[in-house]
Amino acid sequence: MVRERPGTGGATARVPTRDVVLAAVRLFTDHGFEATTMDDVAAAGGVSRRSLFRRFGTKEDILFAEHDELFAEVSRHLETAPGTPLDAVFSAARLVLDGYLRDPEVTVPRYRLVRVHPRLRDREVAMTARYQSAFSRYLAARGGGGAPEERSLAAGAAAAALIAAHNHVLRGWLRDPGQEPARVWERYDAAMAFVRRAVGPMLHADGEAPARERVVVAVYPADLGRDELVRRLAAAVDEAGPRG
Amino acid sequence: MVRERPGTGGATARVPTRDVVLAAVRLFTDHGFEATTMDDVAAAGGVSRRSLFRRFGTKEDILFAEHDELFAEVSRHLETAPGTPLDAVFSAARLVLDGYLRDPEVTVPRYRLVRVHPRLRDREVAMTARYQSAFSRYLAARGGGGAPEERSLAAGAAAAALIAAHNHVLRGWLRDPGQEPARVWERYDAAMAFVRRAVGPMLHADGEAPARERVVVAVYPADLGRDELVRRLAAAVDEAGPRG
DNA sequence: CCCTCGTGTGGCATTTAGTGTCAGAGTAGA
DNA sequence: TCTACTCTGACACTAAATGCCACACGAGGG
Fold first, then answer.
1. Which candidate from A153, A197, A230 shows the least CB-CB separation from B165?
2. DNA-binding among the record's keywords (chains A, B) (predicted)?
């Protein structure tokens, strides 16, 4: 690396995080994660080695920087989410999948790197655990009745099942990122419905009426097309007036 | 460190793994994980720095060496366990807890270190993920009927819930290792019974009643957003299987 | 008994991740 | 314009991790 003006300490022009991440992803993919030094990344990203460490901490953190932002976003969402605690957690998980789908340029090559390098895999798993822990604590704090002991146990198991289902669908997409997002969301909704069935009973160990509820009962011909059916249900919901 | 005979490369006397681990745990606990260098560990363990790296790979691996052995033991157990796949996984998980309880000299101080150092925490989480992955694959491969897609989803969620419950009880003991093992096992059995109730139905997603008409019944919080409600209804429709 | 071969170990050199420190450059505000 | 604050780059340094070579020991054959 050739420095034009030794002794020139620039300022103001902040480290372009996104550019650095993309450059790093490219280098890691092309030459391998281990073989790529921080000097290489710094040169490719147009910043100094020192600034690189200041911004990202470690070499692995470069890959997961945007994931950290996503986690922060999800955490914020949890604080202000409407509905029951379970609803909040489900919609938060949806946000995570959306975060992945929105940024395939980083998430897809990262997944391929993660599959190869145990160290990176551990890092990825740790991220997953962070979500799980956050969801678990959220549910335990606001969850239904029952003894505190059983409540936190149920919250932990529910969060774990939810995250597992989420990751199941997510990995399906990461392995084949070419498929239609609509189909991914379809599978995701099905997986979430599955988890909801299993998790629901866990959190209502005893009779605890969770606020006000409404009921939709729809009877329809067995051969009605899926899209048409969904459309009718949506119309019925809208006719029923505002919720709350 | 004073070397008596420079140039003396010993042999034969294999590195006493257990002694080194205990010495390392002590050093990490007394002076901190970061502050303890591999030279320190080597000196305390009575081996050379080079041999230390050969045996354990990294500094963190020293702490988790025995955990790796436990994982190998559990894996072997899975291969030869009697009973249903679910039974096998439950007994395997029991083996894990027993492994912790049997070796408090290492597992307890390690837990305290893990709580403080994010890096070690990630490593611990990765171990948990390895169990979860092994259990999930085991269940998916030998699990009950249903479509392969749903089967692996159910296996993943079940394994996750099981591991979460296991870790819930395990952490309870690690935080207060003085309590009676009998009481720990009591709590563990209760937690496992809880998980079994929730997980059992997940793995037996069978009977689909063929009817001319089908009914959707949705119960939802009154303040749930319109989009989320519609999404759930659509998911419920998809989940109900093909129409016609 | 000696020699040889294989295996495990120690010492040394080297690379590189990661940190502390200081100097310079730019920006905002008085 | 001068000053205070912030961000960046350069340099030095620690320590983890790896490659390489030399040496010690045990086993086996002559």
1. A153
2. yes
Q: Tokens at residue B113, please?
A: 């270190």
pLDDT of residue A4: 37
User: Do B161 and A158 lie within an 8 Å CB cutoff?
Assistant: yes
Q: Yes or no: say if A228 and B243 are a contact pair by the CB < 8 Å rule.
A: no
Q: What are the two backbone dihedrals, phi and then psi, of residue B221, each rounded to the nearest 5 degrees?
A: -65, 145
Q: Where are the alpha helices (DSSP H) in chain B?
A: 17-31, 38-45, 49-56, 59-80, 85-102, 104-116, 118-142, 148-175, 181-203, 226-239
Residue A54 host element (H or E): helix A49-56
Domains of chain A listed by start with CATH number: 17-56 (1.10.10.60), 61-203 (1.10.357.10)
Query: Is the CB of B165 less than 8 angstroms away from the CB of A159?
Result: no
Dihedral sign, Cα of residue B109, residue B115, residue B116, residue B122: positive
Per-residue b or e along A17-45, where b marks 16 or more CB atoms closer than 10 Å to that residue's CB: beebbbbbbebbeeeebeebebebbbbbb
What DSSP state is assigned to residue A213? E
* CA–C1' A45–D1 (A): 36
Query: Which residues in chain A touch residue B216, judged by CB atoms under 8 angstroms apart?
Result: 216-218, 220, 233
Per-residue pLDDT of chain B in tens (244 residues, 90 and over written 9): 333 444 344 444 566 789 999 999 999 999 999 999 999 999 999 999 999 999 999 999 999 999 999 999 999 999 999 889 999 999 999 999 999 999 999 999 999 999 999 999 999 999 999 999 999 999 999 866 677 788 999 999 999 999 999 999 999 999 999 999 999 999 999 999 999 988 877 776 543 333 344 555 556 666 666 666 666 666 666 555 444 3
What CA–CA distance (Å, rounded) separates A174 from A105? 11
The secondary structure of residue A222, as a DSSP letter, is T
Nearest in space to B240 (alpha carbons), one of B211, B198, B202? B211
- Identify the sign of the CA torsion A123, A124, A130, A136: negative
Q: Which positions 190-219 of A are in contact with B (Cβ < 8 Å)?
A: 190-195, 197-199, 201-202, 210-219
Are B88 and B78 in contact by the 8 Å Cβ rule? The answer is: yes
Q: Which protein residue lies nearest to nucleotide C27, measured between its Cα and the C1' atom?
A: A12
